[in-house]
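Subject: Protein record for review, amino acid sequence with backbone structure tokens
Why sent: The fold of this protein is of interest and is recorded here as tokens.
Notation: Tokens come from a learned vocabulary of local backbone shapes, not from coordinates.
Attached in line: The record itself begins immediately under this heading.
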Amino acid sequence: MATKVPIPRLGQSEETVTIQSWKVKEGDTIKKGDVLFDVETDKAVLDVESQFEGTVLKILVPAGKEVPVLCTGLIIGSPGEDISALLKESAVPAAAPKAAATAPAAVQKAAPAPTAPAAESAPVSAPVSAPKAAPAAPAQKAVSPRARAFAKDYLIDINKVPGTGGGVGRVTEKDVQAYLDNSGYNAKKITPVALNVAKEAKLELLSLTGTGDGGRITLADVKNAVFEQPKPMSTMRKVIARRLTESKHMMPHFYVTVSIDMTAVKAKRAALKKQNISISVNVFVTKAVALALREFPTVNAECTGDAIKQKSRVNLGIAVSLDNGLIVPVIRNADKKALDELQDEIAEQAAKARAGKLTPEEISGGTFTISNMGMMNVENFAAIINPGEAGILAVSSAILTPVAAKDGSIVAREMMKVTLSVDHRIVDGSEGAKFVNAVKSKLEDAALWDSLI
């Protein structure tokens, strides 16, 4: 019996996902546990395994399309099985709009057609188009087949051509010819190589500005136009943009910065290295933050409308930078873990994040976040609070700095600035200052680190 296979919800907050690639094709025989496809969520790329056995009869969602979770992705059954009823009830999302289709072969009249490619240096008085790909808006004006065929070689946006036909503004072949004559199109000069590249990129000639001799459009001009074309955001980038915009709009952020003397941490790290134990600065910061959150439960909280929800556990999100965005794996019960446990878990989660192998459980449930840019030679920065939390700590680089000692002498110390961003609905200024100074005092306390090793 044929079965509809839905695209699963991979996280509590997921409403849409994007299938990055299919691992099966129609006609393939699959068994339970086989990977059907991988999906890009707002946080990671995850494999989706089959819970069914059978033959892939129909794939309903194309790769690269963002679709709602739980819609039918494919239908599995027996070869030759009638699935017409299932197709009707599957409510498959409509495919994303595509660029306007070009009509059959162009009817070559009055306006000259593009010439064959030649050397880059030889100018051609021919058609080509520039920066903006012709939009394929659903509400396109009426265009006659002959007009569309005639226009297809000239890289113009047919929707910009004034129509005079049929009493409803239908674009005719005559209208296209008039547009070419009156728009200055025929005065454009472009080299053959640039022409071919512009065609491939579906650029609009009239939007290109030439920098060559006499205003000739060169290959460099076309490449610049291609480079400047808008590119769609990934699912992850779109969700980052939406959530952080919501965070700044909904949460009144305020910021507290302190400078921390990292002498105690550096000394402890050096001592541990002699024992072949490597603990990163980030781990010391993580532990200090976790211990401080136990002392300041208001910072380890969330605002839910007119109520404040304090979290009983200290689950720290550790921001990891990726090529296409940012992801925050969560270290659960960080306050109860030893430094070496934190070191191993943070390293493991960061590696999985960069490989796109984190599970939904590993990126949910955080109560506070740390964003560490210490390895990037950053003096100071402020971070945006992750929705569902009350604060985030931005950690900068430890920089050798002249400071005044207690006896009034000037000494060199590795000073590290950290900036706390907190939700002012939950945390007042004095509470935020006490919290960030508690983190400071722990990092500067050599006796604390001796006791924790």
Remarks:
- Residues 93-138 have pLDDT under 50 and may be disordered.
